[in-house]
Amino acid sequence: MALKKLDIGTELGRGWNLFKENMGVLIVASLIATLVSAVTCGILGGALTAGMFLIVQRLMRKDPIAPQAGDVFKGFDFFVQALILVVLAIVAACLLAVIPVVGQLAGLAVGAVMMWAMLFLVYQKLSAIDAVKKVFEYTKTGEFTMPLIFALIANVISGLGAIACVVGVFFTIPIAYCMLACGYETLFGGEAEAISPEVNVAPPSEPPADLRL
Q1: Measured between alpha carbons, how far is 151 from 188 in angstroms, rounded to an integer?
Q2: By the 8 A CB rule, do 211 and 56 touch?
Q3: Is pLDDT above 90 for 37?
Q4: DSSP letters of 15-47?
Q5: Domain boundaries, the chain
Q6: Quick one: which of 43, 39, 126 has its CA closest to 86?
Protein backbone atom coordinates (compact mmCIF):
# COMPACT_ATOMS: atom_id res chain seq x y z
CA MET A 1 0.00 0.00 0.00
CA ALA A 2 1.37 3.39 -1.02
CA LEU A 3 2.28 5.80 1.75
CA LYS A 4 0.49 9.10 2.17
CA LYS A 5 2.38 12.21 1.16
CA LEU A 6 4.36 13.79 3.99
CA ASP A 7 4.69 17.58 3.88
CA ILE A 8 7.66 18.48 6.08
CA GLY A 9 6.57 22.07 6.72
CA THR A 10 3.08 20.98 7.77
CA GLU A 11 4.38 18.33 10.18
CA LEU A 12 6.94 20.70 11.70
CA GLY A 13 4.14 23.17 12.33
CA ARG A 14 1.82 20.54 13.80
CA GLY A 15 4.57 19.33 16.11
CA TRP A 16 5.37 22.86 17.26
CA ASN A 17 1.71 23.57 18.02
CA LEU A 18 1.40 20.30 19.94
CA PHE A 19 4.42 21.25 22.03
CA LYS A 20 3.12 24.77 22.72
CA GLU A 21 -0.23 23.42 23.92
CA ASN A 22 1.40 20.91 26.30
CA MET A 23 4.68 22.61 27.12
CA GLY A 24 4.60 22.01 30.88
CA VAL A 25 4.25 18.22 30.96
CA LEU A 26 6.59 17.75 27.99
CA ILE A 27 9.42 19.85 29.41
CA VAL A 28 9.26 18.14 32.80
CA ALA A 29 9.10 14.69 31.18
CA SER A 30 12.06 15.60 28.96
CA LEU A 31 14.01 16.83 32.00
CA ILE A 32 13.39 13.53 33.78
CA ALA A 33 14.26 11.46 30.73
CA THR A 34 17.45 13.38 29.92
CA LEU A 35 18.81 13.38 33.48
CA VAL A 36 18.03 9.70 34.14
CA SER A 37 19.54 8.73 30.78
CA ALA A 38 22.69 10.75 31.56
CA VAL A 39 23.07 9.26 35.05
CA THR A 40 22.75 5.72 33.63
CA CYS A 41 25.21 6.44 30.78
CA GLY A 42 22.43 6.08 28.21
CA ILE A 43 21.42 2.57 29.25
CA LEU A 44 17.89 3.74 30.04
CA GLY A 45 17.82 6.26 27.19
CA GLY A 46 15.96 4.01 24.77
CA ALA A 47 13.20 3.15 27.22
CA LEU A 48 12.76 6.79 28.21
CA THR A 49 12.58 7.82 24.57
CA ALA A 50 9.81 5.25 24.19
CA GLY A 51 8.10 6.80 27.20
CA MET A 52 8.29 10.26 25.64
CA PHE A 53 6.67 8.99 22.46
CA LEU A 54 3.89 7.39 24.50
CA ILE A 55 3.18 10.69 26.25
CA VAL A 56 3.22 12.61 22.97
CA GLN A 57 0.82 10.18 21.33
CA ARG A 58 -1.66 10.49 24.19
CA LEU A 59 -1.48 14.28 24.01
CA MET A 60 -1.90 14.23 20.25
CA ARG A 61 -4.96 12.00 20.48
CA LYS A 62 -6.34 14.02 23.38
CA ASP A 63 -6.50 11.14 25.84
CA PRO A 64 -9.28 11.92 28.36
CA ILE A 65 -6.83 10.88 31.10
CA ALA A 66 -4.16 13.53 30.70
CA PRO A 67 -0.63 12.07 30.81
CA GLN A 68 1.70 13.13 33.59
CA ALA A 69 5.46 13.68 33.36
CA GLY A 70 6.05 10.51 35.37
CA ASP A 71 4.40 8.49 32.61
CA VAL A 72 7.72 8.67 30.79
CA PHE A 73 8.67 5.60 32.84
CA LYS A 74 5.97 3.59 31.05
CA GLY A 75 8.54 3.31 28.33
CA PHE A 76 10.16 0.60 30.44
CA ASP A 77 7.57 -1.76 28.95
CA PHE A 78 9.84 -1.55 25.88
CA PHE A 79 13.13 -1.62 27.79
CA VAL A 80 14.80 -4.65 26.17
CA GLN A 81 13.83 -3.90 22.58
CA ALA A 82 14.57 -0.18 22.96
CA LEU A 83 18.01 -0.99 24.38
CA ILE A 84 18.72 -3.35 21.48
CA LEU A 85 17.75 -0.60 19.05
CA VAL A 86 20.05 1.93 20.75
CA VAL A 87 22.95 -0.56 20.73
CA LEU A 88 22.41 -1.25 17.02
CA ALA A 89 22.44 2.49 16.30
CA ILE A 90 25.62 3.06 18.33
CA VAL A 91 27.44 0.16 16.64
CA ALA A 92 26.39 1.37 13.18
CA ALA A 93 27.46 4.95 13.95
CA CYS A 94 30.83 3.83 15.31
CA LEU A 95 31.55 1.67 12.27
CA LEU A 96 30.65 4.50 9.91
CA ALA A 97 32.65 7.08 11.90
CA VAL A 98 35.95 5.61 10.67
CA ILE A 99 35.08 6.71 7.11
CA PRO A 100 36.19 10.34 6.64
CA VAL A 101 33.39 12.84 5.89
CA VAL A 102 31.07 10.25 4.34
CA GLY A 103 30.94 8.40 7.64
CA GLN A 104 29.77 11.47 9.51
CA LEU A 105 27.02 12.12 6.97
CA ALA A 106 25.99 8.48 7.09
CA GLY A 107 25.83 8.80 10.88
CA LEU A 108 23.07 11.36 10.46
CA ALA A 109 21.18 8.86 8.33
CA VAL A 110 21.57 6.27 11.09
CA GLY A 111 19.92 8.67 13.51
CA ALA A 112 16.98 9.16 11.13
CA VAL A 113 16.56 5.40 10.70
CA MET A 114 16.73 4.89 14.46
CA MET A 115 13.96 7.43 15.15
CA TRP A 116 11.57 5.82 12.68
CA ALA A 117 12.46 2.38 14.03
CA MET A 118 11.70 3.64 17.55
CA LEU A 119 8.33 4.92 16.38
CA PHE A 120 7.50 1.53 14.86
CA LEU A 121 8.75 -0.22 17.99
CA VAL A 122 6.56 1.85 20.32
CA TYR A 123 3.43 2.49 18.25
CA GLN A 124 3.28 -0.86 16.44
CA LYS A 125 4.95 -2.94 19.17
CA LEU A 126 7.54 -4.41 16.82
CA SER A 127 10.82 -5.90 17.96
CA ALA A 128 13.95 -3.80 17.40
CA ILE A 129 15.06 -5.98 14.48
CA ASP A 130 11.63 -5.97 12.84
CA ALA A 131 11.35 -2.21 13.30
CA VAL A 132 14.68 -1.63 11.52
CA LYS A 133 13.67 -4.08 8.78
CA LYS A 134 10.43 -2.16 8.28
CA VAL A 135 12.33 1.10 7.78
CA PHE A 136 14.56 -0.51 5.15
CA GLU A 137 11.60 -2.16 3.44
CA TYR A 138 9.91 1.22 3.05
CA THR A 139 13.22 2.78 1.97
CA LYS A 140 13.64 0.23 -0.83
CA THR A 141 10.29 1.23 -2.29
CA GLY A 142 11.57 4.76 -2.80
CA GLU A 143 8.64 6.22 -0.87
CA PHE A 144 10.48 6.82 2.38
CA THR A 145 12.98 9.46 1.30
CA MET A 146 10.91 12.39 2.57
CA PRO A 147 10.13 10.76 5.96
CA LEU A 148 13.85 10.07 6.47
CA ILE A 149 14.74 13.67 5.62
CA PHE A 150 12.01 14.77 8.02
CA ALA A 151 13.49 12.63 10.81
CA LEU A 152 16.94 14.04 10.07
CA ILE A 153 15.59 17.59 10.41
CA ALA A 154 13.84 16.67 13.66
CA ASN A 155 17.11 15.24 15.02
CA VAL A 156 18.93 18.46 14.13
CA ILE A 157 16.24 20.46 15.93
CA SER A 158 16.61 18.17 18.93
CA GLY A 159 20.33 18.88 19.09
CA LEU A 160 20.05 22.64 18.69
CA GLY A 161 19.35 23.05 22.40
CA ALA A 162 22.76 21.65 23.27
CA ILE A 163 24.49 24.00 20.84
CA ALA A 164 22.75 27.17 21.98
CA CYS A 165 22.48 26.33 25.66
CA VAL A 166 22.64 22.95 27.38
CA VAL A 167 19.37 23.66 29.20
CA GLY A 168 17.76 24.16 25.80
CA VAL A 169 17.65 20.43 25.15
CA PHE A 170 14.75 20.17 27.59
CA PHE A 171 12.81 22.25 25.06
CA THR A 172 14.17 21.05 21.73
CA ILE A 173 14.01 17.31 22.49
CA PRO A 174 10.25 17.24 23.19
CA ILE A 175 9.65 19.56 20.21
CA ALA A 176 11.41 17.02 17.96
CA TYR A 177 9.42 14.14 19.46
CA CYS A 178 6.17 16.00 18.85
CA MET A 179 7.14 16.60 15.23
CA LEU A 180 8.10 12.96 14.67
CA ALA A 181 4.91 11.67 16.29
CA CYS A 182 2.82 13.98 14.09
CA GLY A 183 4.65 12.71 11.02
CA TYR A 184 4.03 9.12 12.07
CA GLU A 185 0.35 9.84 12.66
CA THR A 186 0.01 11.27 9.15
CA LEU A 187 1.65 8.25 7.51
CA PHE A 188 0.56 5.37 9.73
CA GLY A 189 -2.05 6.67 12.14
CA GLY A 190 -4.76 4.28 10.96
CA GLU A 191 -2.62 1.14 10.77
CA ALA A 192 -3.02 -0.01 14.34
CA GLU A 193 -6.66 0.91 14.81
CA ALA A 194 -8.76 -1.93 16.08
CA ILE A 195 -11.41 -3.19 13.72
CA SER A 196 -14.69 -4.13 15.30
CA PRO A 197 -15.68 -7.69 14.45
CA GLU A 198 -18.68 -8.06 12.28
CA VAL A 199 -21.72 -9.38 14.03
CA ASN A 200 -23.94 -11.58 11.93
CA VAL A 201 -27.51 -11.01 12.91
CA ALA A 202 -29.92 -13.61 11.65
CA PRO A 203 -33.06 -12.20 10.07
CA PRO A 204 -36.15 -12.61 12.21
CA SER A 205 -38.04 -15.72 11.39
CA GLU A 206 -41.64 -15.42 10.26
CA PRO A 207 -44.23 -16.08 12.95
CA PRO A 208 -46.25 -19.27 12.75
CA ALA A 209 -49.13 -19.19 10.31
CA ASP A 210 -51.75 -19.25 13.08
CA LEU A 211 -50.28 -16.04 14.59
CA ARG A 212 -50.23 -14.04 11.39
CA LEU A 213 -52.84 -11.37 10.90
Answers
A1: 15
A2: no
A3: yes
A4: HHHHHHHTHHHHHHHHHHHHHHHHHTTTTTHHH
A5: 8-187
A6: 43
